[in-house]
Amino acid sequence: MESDNSSGMAALIGRRSNLRAVWGRWLSAVTLLLIAAQTAYLLVQGESYCPTTGCKVVEEQSPLSPLIMNAGGLVFFAALLLLFLALRRREGGMVGAVLGPLLLAGIAAEGVLFAFQYQTGFFCLYCCTILAAIALLNLFLGGGQGLRALFVFAAVFLASFLLTVPRGLDAAAGQAAVRQDIDAGTLAWREGPAGAEKRYFFFAEDCSHCKAALAALMQDPKHKATLRLNPLAPLQELELPGLEQQPGFRPEANRIFLASLGIKSVPVLLVQDSGAIQILLGAEQILAHVRGGGATQNNSFIEQLDDQSIHGQSRQSSQTAVPQTDFLIPGKDGCSVDVGCSQ
After folding, report:
1. Alpha helix ranges (H) inside 141-290
2. Mean pLDDT, consecutive 10-residue segments, the chain of 343 residues?
3. I want to staple 110 with a disulfide (CB 3.0 to 4.6 A). Which of 73, 131, 158, 333 is the partner?
4. What share of the chain is helix, strand, coil (3-state, %, to 5)?
5. DSSP states of 11-55 as a string?
6. Closest among 112, 258, 113 to 185, alpha carbons compared
């Protein structure tokens, strides 16, 4: 009887092991196809497919080419698929000896990438999907492997977070410096007459509300104001004739600045005039201001600040919080900063 129980338990363990191997094969194959599709899109379109604008921010700050990163992912998951296909009812032998460490190496690499995303303040949905796949594959090899993967990920994440800074951020000043200098986020500008108001326009290229407001700002016939355009990501198709271009601009500065104010939608127009700063939220408010109608109190607020408040000096003593209940509704008069819109 004891022998029968032992045989039954061994058979149960064998079935569970085989089931995990099957799951591993399928997940490896699906992730491999996902990376292959992303690589093909990158080769054809010349840019990665980014379902969220956070993906674009992470990609543009990464020191590695997205093509190199995707090529590495293809090799990694192809190797995993072959190993899971070779895995039999029990983990062990040469396959088990290679598969476990390989998955730990993968979760370690993801720890570095996740720390990088955390430092930028934006997360890539595509990258997080790959991270989830590697985490699950580690769990498929059992609780012990999953626990080892957790410790490896935590250790690498902590070390990377403490020792690295994303490209485009000054190591000494860090993220706070970018937050306080929106001139660094200006892609193009047009100077107005001396003493005229200065306008900073924050927008997304795929936002139709932003395009309507931008058209009105660009059609200022007398150039009565200095106009600075601060997109949330590098432009792909939109042309800006008649404006001076700033090479190496930092779109992440614009996102960090808006996030520091709790603003989650664009278009946004920051108007600086005689020491006062007025922020207009939504196309309607911006169009009203450009046409001389002013802005209502519902979607705007005013701060009595000097130039240093938004150009590299502390904001602690003068910043006024934006009224959260007065934000525009994404899709009605603007687009979400994180998701965007293409209507």
Report:
1. 143-163, 175-179, 208-218, 251-260, 283-290
2. 42 56 89 93 81 68 80 93 76 75 93 83 84 93 90 92 59 41 84 85 88 86 78 81 80 81 87 83 88 52 44 40 39 67 50
3. 131
4. 55, 10, 35
5. HHHHHHHHHHHHHHHHHHHHHHHHHHHHHHHHHHHSS---SSHHH
6. 258
